[in-house]
Amino acid sequence: MSGIHHVTAIAGDPNKNLDFYTRDLGLRFVKKTVNFDDPSTYHFYYGNETGSPGTILTFFPWAKASAGQRGVGETHQTAFRVPLRSLGYWTERFIEKGIACQALEKRFGEQVLPFTDPDGMALALVGAANAADEPAWSNGDIPVQHAIRGFQGITLLLDSAEKTAAILSDVFDFREVAREGSAIRFAAAGVANGGIVDIHEVKGCPRGHQGRGSVHHIAFRAADDAQQAQMTEKLIRVHGRHPTEQKDRSYFRSIYFREPGGVLFEIATDIPGFAVDEPVETLGRALKLPKFLEPRRQEIEGMLPVVGELA
């Protein structure tokens, strides 16, 4: 199975982030843990009921982070899928809640509703005609028939698409399916959630820099360690990339590399999943730490800000 596994971004205030994604967008809070490389910082995971690959948006909430700047070498927008008939519901909801959104627009023949989160992260809802019959998580406020299904995909801003496209096709099994102006669409066959990558070629435009409201990295799926190893070998042998060693993230195992345009990519295994350390019924309620940080629990809990209760 190919496609996007998860998207990780940078937020500011953790409570505003938690409220927006669970209450306003209705995603499930799948996991409350810490940044394994910086345990003084939370790592929040949002997704569907079980946090299936292709639905997972994660955040490092750094309260003092300065605002990022979108530009070349960055992820420009992250898009979710909703049923096509639900775009009217979401437009009214955004207006009612004072969420910054733009007018509906059409891209590659699809209806798209762009909006931003409290930190200025560029998001969109894409109306998918076939999404209405797919299962969805509801927070009890948003009717299940209108709920977000998962990712549509991401948009990258790059000087040139050629070398990145080669990795998308050769390593991740995406294929070019359409062009529209400066945008090139790549799709993973048979993948509903997280099956789209759009590349805008914007040669000569200023480079972006990361900060609050920026995407930190994009993770693509590997079924297991063996498939990840095959993908890693091809990245080195064919594409001249220099991936990291495998890192155990408790809920998946990952390698990281910079794609030719400068965006940080990850390859994450589908296994073992988010129920490895707590039941599906209670996902996201307790602070979960990896085994190597568990002896420091009291210290870590003392460093982390208090976050409110879930909806």
Question: Please, could you describe this protein's structure?
Answer:
The protein is an alpha+beta fold. Helices cover 16% and strands 35% of the residues. The protein has 5 helices and 16 strands. The strands form 2 sheets. Strands 2-3-4-1-13-16-15-14 form an 8-stranded mixed sheet. The protein has an 8-stranded mixed sheet with strand order 6-7-8-5-9-12-11-10, covered by helices on one side. The two termini are 33 Å apart. The model has no long low-confidence stretch (mean pLDDT 95).
- Gross morphology is globular
Strand order within the widest sheet? Answer: 2-3-4-1-13-16-15-14
Through-space gap between termini: 33 Å
Number of helices: 5
Radius of gyration: 18 Å
Poorly predicted tracts of residues = none
Regarding quaternary structure, what we see is single chain
* Overall strand count: 16
Q: Estimate the mean pLDDT confidence.
A: 95
Beta-strand percent range: 35-45%
Helix content: 10-25%
Question: What is this structure, in a nutshell?
Answer:
With 311 residues, the protein is of the alpha+beta class. The protein has helices at 14-24, 87-97, 162-170, 225-237, 297-303, and strands at residues 4-11, 28-35, 38-47, 56-61, 74-83, 105-107, 110-116, 122-128, 150-158, 174-180, 183-188, 196-201, 215-222, 247-248, 253-258, 264-269.
